[in-house]
Design a protein that fits this description.
Blueprint: E1 3-7, H1 12-23, E2 28-32, H2 43-48, E3 56-59, E4 62-65, H3 67-78, H4 89-120, H5 126-142, H6 156-170, H7 179-191, H8 195-217
Parallel strand pairs: 1-2
Antiparallel strand pairs: 1-3, 3-4
Helix pairs in contact: 1-3, 1-6, 1-8, 4-5, 4-6, 4-8, 6-8
């Protein structure tokens, strides 16, 4: 029985799960949710996930949400022989740290800066932009002398971070001041399995949504 994925294609956290599934060659039963129509607030979905967030997976009678938790679950179930989440405690700790940096620092700072502009028509906040730029600079430092985010091999950390960084790029925020990030970004786009299918398609929808919302706010 395949795992159900409740998701929104343009969502960066949902694209993390798609990237991990692609890297592990796991087929997911895709179940898109229209958040604007409130499909995540139905009684049936709330039984699966009382936080009513995407992505959410359902594997038989087991449901799980939060993209990084889902990523680890998929690896634990299907990742035998894969280097995406190394067994060595120190190497795995670095992957975990990068995942925590993504979910706790980089992606929130992007969301705090950018989403009020497109969803609420708020003016750009320069202080919040500085915080995002600081996070990108920190990530650039992480990449000094490293091929990938957590060492010399592609890991779960890269798949999470590339979803965030590609979203930042798609939002029109320049990555040019961060040469290590730029180099890493191009590498992951080339080496993450099925990158365009798993991440590129959703990015196009994200760009289209942003353009539509910006056009409405300018009326």
């Amino acid at each position: 029985m395949s795992i159900d994925l409740y998701y929104t294609a343009g969502s960066a956290p949902c694209r993390v799960v798609l990237l991990v599934a692609a890297a592990l060659n796991v087929e997911l039963n895709l179940k898109p949710l229209d958040l604007r129509a409130g499909e995540h607030l139905t009684p049936d979905f709330l039984k699966l996930n009382p936080q009513h967030t995407v992505p959410t997976i359902v594997d038989g009678d087991f449901s799980l949400w939060e993209s990084r938790a889902i990523s680890r679950y998929l690896f634990n179930k299907y990742g035998e022989g894969s280097s995406l989440y190394p067994e060595d405690p120190k190497a795995r700790a670095v992957v975990d740290q990068r995942l925590d940096f993504d979910i706790g620092t980089l992606y929130p700072r992007f969301g705090q800066y950018f989403y009020p502009q497109v969803f609420a028509g708020a003016p750009a906040d320069e202080a919040l932009l500085k915080k995002l730029e600081e996070a990108l600079s920190i990530f650039d430092t992480f990449l000094d002398g490293q091929k990938y985010a957590a060492g010399q091999q592609l890991t779960l950390a890269d798949l999470a971070l590339v979803s965030t960084v590609s979203t930042i790029d798609a939002a029109g925020i320049s990555l040019k001041p961060y040469p290590n990030v730029n180099k890493w970004f191009e590498l992951v786009k080339k080496t993450a399995p099925k990158y365009e299918e798993a991440n590129g398609t959703g990015l196009k929808l994200f760009r289209a949504m942003v353009a539509q919302l910006k056009a409405k706010s300018e009326l």
